[in-house]
Amino acid sequence: MAVQFQETSRTFSQTLSQVADTIETQEQVTLRELLMLIGEQGLLLFCMILVVPFLFPVSIPGVSTVFGAVIILIGIGVTLNRLPWLPEGLLKRTFETKGLVPTFRSGAQRFAFLDNLLRPRLSALSGNLLIDRLNGFMLTFAGVLLIFPLGLIPFSNTLPGIAVLLLAAGLLQRDGLMILLGYVFNLLTVIYFGALALGAIAAGQGIASLIGS
After folding, report:
1. Is residue 7 a part of any domain in this protein?
2. Do the domain assignments include residue 4?
3. In total, how many domains does the chain have?
4. Which single residue of 13, 147, 151, 169 could bond 108 by disulfide (Cβ 3.0 to 4.6 Å)?
C-alpha cells in the first residue's frame, strides 16, 4: 500500500508533552502504545519522538537497538513508498516510563524551536517520489548508525540521532533545509565512527608493540 506523509497539525513539542502527560501514570509503556499515542501525526513524527532519548549526553540503556530498528523499518517504508511492517515482538516491547517521561518533557522544552523553524523550502530536496526514496534511504542509514553498539562513547548516539530528527522533520514538513542538514549529520557520524575505528586500531597496535618489546 502506497503511503503519503502529510504535514502535521500539532507541533513537535506539543506532541512530546502530550505523550509524557499520558504515560506518566503508567510504570511501563509498550512500543504499540507509543505509536497509538502519535495517531494521525504519522510515522515520521514517531521517528522524531523515538530519537529524543539519544539527543542528550547520557542515553537510556537498552532502547537504542529497539528504537533504532523501528526507525530503520520506517525508513525502509519511506524508501519503498509503502506503509512499513513492524514485527509484533517489537510492538510488544515494554519500557520503563520513569526514564522516558522526563526525557520527553525535556525534549519538548529544548526542541520547541523546531516548531517555528520548520516550513516548506528547498523543494528540490523533497516533494517528489524519486528524491523521497533517496531521503528514505538516508533515514534508514541513520537508523543503522544509531544501533551501533557504541552507546557509552560520547556523541555516538547523538550524531545519528540528530540526523534522524532532521531527516524525519524535513520529510514531514517538506523542509529541504532540514533534509540537507540531516545528510550533513549522517556524514559527520560516518567521519566520527571512522575516527573512532582508526583510534582503536592505533591503540591496538601500540599495545601490541609494547607487549612485543
Report:
1. no
2. no
3. 1
4. 13
Please work out, in degrees rounded to the nearest 5, the angle formed at the alpha carbon of residue 103 by the alpha carbons of 150 and 117.
95
Q: Tell me the pLDDT tens digit for each residue of 54-112.
A: 887 656 656 778 888 889 988 998 888 776 777 888 778 888 888 888 888 888 887 77
Which residues neighbour 160 within 8 Å (Cβ) at sequence distance 6 or greater? 54, 142, 143, 145, 146, 148, 185, 186, 189
Q: How many angstroms separate the CA atoms of 70 and 90, rounded? A: 8
170 falls within a domain: yes
Nearest to 73 by CA among 64, 61, 60, 86: 86
Residue 1 lies in a domain: no
Q: Has this prediction a pTM greater than 0.85?
A: no
DSSP state of 25: T
What pLDDT does 213 receive? 57
